[in-house]
Amino acid sequence: MIDKISAWDMNTASSLQNRDERTDDQSPWDFRLLFDRSPVGVYVVQSGQIRYANPAMGDLLGREPKTIANNSLLSFIHPDDRSMAEEHRQQQGAETEATRFLTRIVRADGTIATVEMMESPLQDESLASPSDDAVMVGVMMDVTAHRQADLEIQERLGFEQLLANLSAGFVNLPCDQIDSRIDASLKALVEFLGNDRSTFVEFGDDDDYVMVSHSYAVPGCPRFPIGPFAVAHLPWFINQFRSGNRVFVRRIPQDFPVDAVKEREHCLQQGIQSNVTVPLKAGGELLGGLTFAFLRKQCEWPREIMSRLDLVGGVFANVLLRRRNEEVLQKTMEENLRLRQQLEQENLYLREQAVLKHHHGKIVGHSDAITRVLADVERVATTDAPVLLTGETGTGKELLAQTIHELSDRKNRPMIVVNCASLPATLIESELFGRAAGAYTGAASAAVGRFELADGSTLFLDEIGEFPLELQAKLLRVLQDGRFERLGTAKTISVDVRIIAATNRDLEAATRKNLFRSDLFYRLNVFPICVPPLRERCEDIPPLTWAFVEAFGRRMGKSIKSIPRKTMKQLQSHDWPGNIRELSNTIERAMILANSDTLHIETPATSRDAADRQKTLKEVERDQILFVLEKTGWRIRGSGGAAECLDIKPTTLEARMAKLGIKRPNQ
Ligand SMILES: Nc1ncnc2c1ncn2[C@@H]1O[C@H](COP(=O)(O)OP(=O)(O)OP(=O)(O)O)[C@@H](O)[C@H]1O
Fold it and tell me: For the PAC domain, which residue ranges apply (predicted)?
C-alpha cells in the first residue's frame, strides 16, 4: 500500500503512467496530462494531507500546485466551514460512495470562494472498506457565482415577501389601526434587514419641526424619542430627505460632509455608526422619511439596496397619504354635517319666521323663546289634541290659542272662548252644556251651551284652574268621548270639539292639593305649551313696543318717529310682571301723553305691585280671600278664622265667597 501511495508524489507523477503500464491497460491517454489539463480542480489526499493537486486546483486556491502538496486540505477551507467539512470527511471515511458538499475556501490573496467538493476513496480490492489512511481522490469546482446568484434570488424573494406582507397589512386597515400597524411593520423590517433601529419621521405644517411618529429598536438599543423634533438639531440630515434625497452614510463620522456638523455630534453622542434614510414620497408629495440606523456595527448593505428601500418607503408613504386623505375627508364630512345641521336650523328658523309672517300676523317677537313656542303651536295646530297653555298673566296665551285655532282645519268656524274665572259656578254648567227650558229657576228658555256652539270648532277654556271642582267630572266626560247632556234633559248630545285650555296657576300643584282633578289635568295636559314671561325674552320688547306704538298711533291719529334709546333700554330692563298686557297699557298711556314725534315712555315704578294694580277689584278681592282662607285652613269663624283676619262678619265672607264662586276644595 505504501508503495502505491508513493506513486502520488508530485515529483514522481509519471508513476501514474507507470501504474497504467503495470495494469497492461493499453489506453491511448496520458492520464497525467488528463489531470493537468482538467478545468476542474483535482486532488488526491491521504490522512487529510494533500498528495497531489492539479493546476486547476492551484488556480482555485490561488497558489502554485507545488505549494499545495503536503498541506492539510482543511487549512485551505474557510475557518467557519472547517468543522462541517471535517464532518463530511469523517462520514466519507466510513463509506465507499463519493461524498459531495459545498464549502468556502480562502485563497492566497485572502479572497473567499464557494466551491463544491466531491471526494471518493481510491478503492483497493485487497481491502473490504476504506481505512483511516485511505487515499481519496477529490474534485473541486468554483460555484461562487452560482451560489451568489442563488443567495441573491433567495434574498430577493424574501424581500418581496416582506414587501407583500407590509402592503397587505395596510389594505383596508381602519385609520385608527394604522399607527399600530406601522409599529409592527418597523419591527418586521428591522428583523429582516438586520439594522438596529428604524424611525418614522413625518413632515407637518411647521417648517421648523418634524414629527417623529414611530420608532423601533432592537433590544438593547434605545428607541428614538417620539414627538416633535426641531430641524435645527439635524439640519443637514433633515433637509436632505426633505428635498427628496436619500441619505447613505456608511461610515460615521468619516463619510459625513463638512457641513453636517450637528449630525456628526449627534451620531457620536448616540453611538450611531451608519445611517440610511429614504424619503417617503407618494402622490407627488414628500411626506417624511424612514431611517435605518446602525448602532452596534457598521452597515454592510450594498448601495443597490437603496432602490429596494425606496419600495418600502413607497408602501409607508401611500399609507400616510391615505391616512391624511381620510383625515381630510373625515374633517370635511364633519364640517358638512355641521353646516347641514346649521342649515337645517336656519331653515327651521326661517320657516318659523315665515310662519310667523304668514300665519301669526298678530304675534310680534322673534326671540328664541317665542320662536320655540310658535314651532310647538304649528306642530300641534293641525292635530285634534288638547293643548294646555301655561304662563303668567298677559303673556299671550289667548292670542296663541287663537293662532292654534286659525292654523287648524277648524279655522272656518269661530273659536269659542269661555273664561272660567269670570262665570259664577252656578252659571258655568249651563253656559258650557246648555239647558232645557225650566231647567232651573230663572231658566225660562232653552239655551245652547258653548260646547254645542263649538261643535266642529275649538273651545278655549281660559283660566281653567278656576273651573268648579264639582263640574270637573262632567267636563272630563266631554273631553273623553264628546258626550254630555244639557241641564234639565236626559238626552245625550255628541259634539266634535277641540279643547285648548289656559291657566296661570300651577295645575299640577293644584291636583296635589285636591283643588283640581288629576284625571282632568292629565286629559288637558296632552300637549303643554309654556309661554315664557316677557322678562325672559326682552329682545321682543322693541318690536312689541313699536307694534303697539303703531297700533295706538293709528287709533289716536299720532305719528311717532323715534323712541329714545335710553327709554328702550329701560323698557328692556323692566321685569314686566303683567307681561305684554302691561307693556301694551304702558305704551297706550305714553301715547295719550305724547305731544311730539318722539315718544317718552315712563316704565312702571314697581313691578309686582304694578301687576296687582292692574287687576280688577274683583280679582284682588278674590285673591285676598283665597289667600286668607288657605292660611287659616278654610276656617271662617272664630278667633283666628278668615272672617276675623279680613275684619268682616263671617256671613259677609260667606256671601262674598258665594258671589266670587270660592269653594273649599273637596266640598
Ligand atoms: N306676541 C305678542 N304680540 C303681540 N301682542 C301680544 C303678544 N302676546 C300678547 N299680546 C297681547 O297682549 C295682551 C295679553 O295677551 P293675552 O290675553 O293673550 O294674554 P294671556 O296670557 O291670555 O293673559 P291672561 O292669563 O291674563 O288671560 C293682548 O292684548 C295680546 O294681544
Answer: 99-155
Verify whether ligand 1 is closer than 6 Å to residue 422 (CB atom).
no
Q: How far does the centroid of ligand 1 lie from the alpha carbon of residue 576, in Å?
A: 13
pLDDT band of residue 10 (cuts 50, 70, 90) is very low
- Summarised one tens digit per residue, pLDDT across range 288-343 is 999 999 999 999 888 878 888 888 899 999 988 888 888 888 888 887 876 776 56
Distance 578 CA to ligand 1 centre (A): 10
Top mutation candidate among 506, 550, 581 for ligand 1, by most atoms within 8 Å of CB: 581
Residue 363 near ligand 1, beta carbon < 6 Å: yes
Ligand 1 center from residue 103 Cα (angstroms): 108
Ligand 1 centroid vs 256 CA: distance in angstroms?
87
Phi first, then psi, for residue 374 (nearest 5°) are -65, -35
Q: Would you tell me which CATH number, out of the four given (3.40.50.720, 3.30.450.20, 3.40.50.620, 3.40.50.300), belongs to the domain 2-142?
A: 3.30.450.20
- Residue 559 Cα to ligand 1 midpoint, Å, equals 24
The answer to whether 213 touches 198, Cβ cutoff 8 Å, is no
Nearest CA to ligand 1 atom 15: 396
Residue 447's identity, in one-letter code, is A
- Best mutation site among 363, 398, 464 for ligand 1, i.e. most ligand atoms within 8 A of its Cβ? 398
User: In a 3-state reduction of DSSP, which class is residue 54?
Assistant: coil
In testing the pocket of ligand 1, which one of 388, 580, 584, 618 has its CB within 8 Å of the most ligand atoms?
580
CATH number of 368-530: 3.40.50.300
b or e along 141-152 (b: 16 or more beta carbons within 10 Å of the residue's beta carbon)?
A: bbbeeebeeeee
Answer yes or no: is the C-beta of 446 below 6 A from any ligand 1 atom: no
Quickly name the fold that domain 156-327 has: Beta-Lactamase (3.30.450)
634: closest CA among 659, 625, 268, 533? 625
User: From ligand 1's centre to the CA of 611, what distance in Å?
Assistant: 14
Please give the pLDDT value at position 92. Answer: 60
ipTM over 0.90? The verdict is: yes
pLDDT higher than 70, residue 611 = no
The torsion defined by the Cα of 367, 370, 371 and 373, in degrees rounded to 10, comes to 160
For residue 155, what is its C-alpha cell? 434574498
Asked if 104 and 124 count as a contact pair (C-beta separation under 8 A), the reply is no
156-327 and 2-142 share a CATH fold: yes
CA gyration radius, the chain: 55
CATH no. for 534-613: 1.10.8.60
CB 481 within 8 A of CB 489: no
- The structural domains of the chain, with segments of one domain joined by +, span 2-142, 156-327, 368-530, 534-613, 617-660
